[in-house]
Amino acid sequence: MGNLTFRHAGATGDMIFALPTIKAMGGGTLYIENFHRQRAESIAPLIKAQPYIDDVLIVDKAPAGCVNLNLFRLYADYHKNIVEAHMIAHGIKDDSWRDGWLTVEKEIEVGKLQPYSVINLGANYLDPNFDWKAEVDYLLTISNVVYFIGYKEEYYKFQLQFDTPAKYFECDFMQAALLIKHAEMFTGGYSAMSTIAMGLGRKYRLVQAPGHTCSSLLMERETIVNLSTWTP
Predict the structure, then answer these.
(1) Is 140 exposed, middle or buried (0-12, 13-18, 19+ CB in 10 A)?
(2) Contacts of 230 (CB under 8 A, 6+ apart)
(3) 2, 7, 197, 225: most buried by Cβ count inside 10 Å?
(4) How would you class 52 by CB atoms within 10 Å of its CB: exposed for 0-12, middle for 13-18, buried for 19 or more?
(5) Cis peptide upstream of residue 11 (ω within 30 degrees of 0)
(6) Is the separation of the CB atoms in 173 and 45 below 8 Å?
(7) pLDDT for 119-135, tens place per residue?
(8) Which fold has domain 110-224?
(9) Full 3-state SS string of the chain
């Protein structure tokens, strides 16, 4: 496979956005450096599952000579999505990622689950006026159950505020990708989970954060569900 080594310091969603650049450069080994270890260990299996990734190593400091994927930050404010920011940082022009760039070959026992939808609400990029209870009620019209994926503390906070019928589904990023892939619908704020939905090339419902526009990646697959409360 590829002979290159790459370095990335996070966050998890940004690492997923970096994958098309790694693929375009021929693949290789990714060093996750100076990043929250538990989160790095959780995202690593999904990254390693990509056919152009040789290995994923979690380190305090990547070795010299790695392709510095952190350079995307110099361009992220000037481009409509983070995939392009990564590519522009390394002089790459490639649109092959637009139909999706994540591979999840491994399967979980999704066949035993009732028809379900998935939601996620992280701690960042929130719309304080969005009615999540109404969203869960809508999702229950197209599925039998709604699962909340993410950290437990996020779910507890979510339920305390919105008191919905959504159930917590504990999973790592690989399992989350499989759940999102097979769901009737995914609704989420701007987070690693919505990045996974983008990477899988599926349609989803985006809760846009007020004043935060760089989440717009592929508008033909995004349905922004809070336009009545969102202002750029």
Answers:
(1) middle
(2) 127, 208, 209, 210, 224
(3) 197
(4) middle
(5) yes
(6) yes
(7) 998 777 678 888 999 99
(8) Rossmann fold (3.40.50)
(9) CCCEEEEECCCHHHHHHHHHHHHHCCCEEEEEECCCHHHHHHHHHHHHCCCCEEEEEEECCCCCCCEEHHHHHHCHHHCCCHHHHHHHHCCCCCCHHHHCCCCCCCCCCHHHCCCEEEEECCCCCCCCCCCHHHHHHHHCCCCCEEEECCCHHHHHHHHHHHCCCCEECCCCHHHHHHHHHHCCCEEEECCHHHHHHHHHCCCEEEECCCCCCCCCCCCCCEEECCCCCCCC
Name the β-bridge partners of 207: 189
* Two tokens, residue 108: 């979980």
Task: Report the pLDDT averaged over residues 187-205.
Answer: 89
In 3D space, the residue among 18, 20, 50, 49 whose CA is nearest the CA of residue 32 turns out to be 18
Is 60 exceeded by the pLDDT of residue 232? no
Q: Which two tokens stand for residue 175?
A: 């399992």
Asked whether residue 109 carries a pLDDT value surpassing 80, the answer given is: no
pTM: predicted TM-score of the whole model, two decimal places: 0.87
pLDDT the model gives residue 207 = 86
Amino acid at 124: N
